[in-house]
Amino acid sequence: MPRSFTADTDGPPGSIGPAQPARPATMRVHLDLLGRLHFMLAGFAVISGIALVILAAGTRSALRDLLIEGSAGHASVVILAACGILFIAGGLALAAAGRALDRRRRAGRLGALALAVPNLLVVPFGTALSLYTFWVLLNDEARQEFGRPPRAPGARTPGHGSA
Q1: What residue segments make up the domains of the chain, in order of their start?
Q2: What integer pLDDT is reported at residue 163 of this predicted model?
Q3: Mean pLDDT rounded to a whole number for the chain
Q4: d(C-alpha 137, C-alpha 101), whole Å
Q5: Residue 3 pLDDT more than 90?
Q6: What is the DSSP string of 19-83?
Q7: Would you say 118 and 111 are in contact if contact means Cβ atoms under 8 Å apart?
Q8: Residues with Cβ within 8 Å of residue 78, at least 6 apart in sequence
Q9: CA–CA distance, 99 with 119 (Å, rounded to integer)
Q10: CA neighbor of 86 nearest in space, from 52, 109, 55, 60
Q11: Residue 139 has what DSSP assignment?
């Protein structure tokens, strides 16, 4: 049953009363979702990396069977394998950050913020996850969840304000 439907205690049993105003979502919900989204993107990255490594192995085998020698063929195999290994490593890092976010570890917050910068270039899902990561983890409530003090009320960030 949706949250907007609540049991009316004044009416007959089983009647549905007016919806109560929804309580504002706490930052914990966003932190839990952020950890799960990191796991999801990590899974996609690892699967893509494995596919690229398999493609590199297949390309190498095909080049050998066709007796094609040359730097272009070898370069394509190296590029495919390197990209695959990079995707796998990035996916494992995202999974570690997601797990640490779920456990509310400081290293998870720092790791997720650090991984958000290169993920800005992974259009569109990495960009969306990065923006959401910045929005959630730079919030004062989230800082307190990770044992960090909130920012001072009038504090300026570097590069903002008058010189």
Answers
A1: 28-145
A2: 45
A3: 84
A4: 10
A5: no
A6: PPPPPPPPHHHHHHHHHHHHHHHHHHHHHHHHHHHHHHHHHHHHHHHTT--SHHHHHHHHHHHHH
A7: no
A8: 56
A9: 18
A10: 52
A11: S
